[in-house]
Write a structure and sequence with these properties.
Shape: globular
Strand order of the largest sheet: 1-2-3-4
Number of strands: 24
Number of helices: 0
Strand content: over 45%
Order of helices and strands: EEEEEEEEEEEEEEEEEEEEEEEE
Radius of gyration: 20 Å
Structural class: mainly beta
Distance between the termini: 32 Å
Helix content: under 10%
């Protein structure tokens, strides 16, 4: 049956993930108080264990996840973007670091765990918006590489599923290369261009990694006019290849080890190879309203 677990008097719930057989989430319990909760589906096992007090005018929760037994949240606490952590066993919240002195556009904020580290956008006056990483401590939090040298910023973009062998695959912009797919393990030397698809400075069809599948990362991209579609990469230039045409606009999920996705021409199924990518159904004029993430 369906029943209430516990009345907690909060609103606007945000999923952080599942850890130790408990669901972790954040919720507003008043307009200036963001609380971190866990529940195992019982009354006794449903409890708040941390609170983040917000300054008036703050947008509050931006992104969050549970990793390594701890919860991490990116919070707009006016005027800063802050990384917070909470301990679901011992209780309590603490500020890890301020990652931007100014708010970032909501649609640019992400938080992804890979290789024991957290990845997210951060900003500074000298470098603009770049990819940052954290090991959960203030000393271990900072920019991984200045992909777009100077204050312009590479405006990184990533989704949670785009992780392979401990590295995050993300979109970054630079003055010499335009918008390209990059990979990072959280270090300067380990942050690298995957492949320059367009061979120039074009950003008309920026690539976006959408999922990891069968030892590769799948991404949408283009290497020229009229050749936009689904690609795969193992993280090397020679291991990057075109799979199928069509603008990938939504990842539906995984079925029997394959990935289902929709594109401009219908629903497709892929095992991560060109021969194993095929249409499932033509949707006609039907479209999804959410993005690849």
């Amino acid at each position: 049956g369906t029943q209430s677990v516990r009345e907690i008097g909060c609103f606007r719930f945000y999923d952080l993930g599942v850890d130790d057989d408990a669901w972790h989430f954040a919720a507003y319990c008043d307009n200036r108080e963001l609380q971190v909760w866990r529940t195992d589906g019982t009354y006794e096992g449903t409890r708040a264990y941390g609170t983040i007090n917000l300054v008036e005018g703050s947008s509050g929760f931006q992104a969050g996840l549970v990793s390594g037994g701890r919860d991490y949240l990116l919070v707009d606490n006016w005027p800063q973007l802050q990384l917070w952590t909470a301990d679901g066993l011992l209780g309590g919240t603490s500020l890890v670091a301020t990652v931007s002195e100014e708010p970032l556009p909501v649609d640019t904020v992400f938080l992804v765990a890979a290789g024991g580290r957290l990845f997210f956008p951060g900003a500074s006056a000298d470098h603009g918006i770049e990819l940052w990483s954290s090991d959960g401590t203030a000393a271990g939090t900072g920019m991984v590489r200045d992909v777009f040298p100077g204050p312009g910023g590479s405006s990184p973009r990533a989704v949670p599923g785009a992780v392979l062998n401990g590295s995050l695959f993300f979109t970054g912009q630079s003055p010499d290369l335009g918008c390209q797919l990059w990979a990072s393990d959280g270090t300067y030397d380990g942050t690298r261009l995957v492949r320059n698809l367009l061979g120039g400075q074009d950003c008309s069809e920026p690539p976006l990694a959408v999922a990891a599948l069968n030892g590769a990362v799948l991404f949408r991209g283009s290497d020229g006019p009229g050749r936009v579609g689904l690609w795969r990469t193992d993280g090397t230039p020679t291991g990057t290849e075109f799979l199928a045409p069509g603008l990938v606009d939504h990842v539906i999920g995984k079925v029997e080890g394959d990935l289902l996705y929709s594109s401009s021409s219908g629903v497709f199924r892929t095992d991560g190879t060109a021969g194993g990518t095929r249409g499932v159904r033509d949707l006609g004029s039907v479209s999804f309203v959410t993005g690849p993430g």
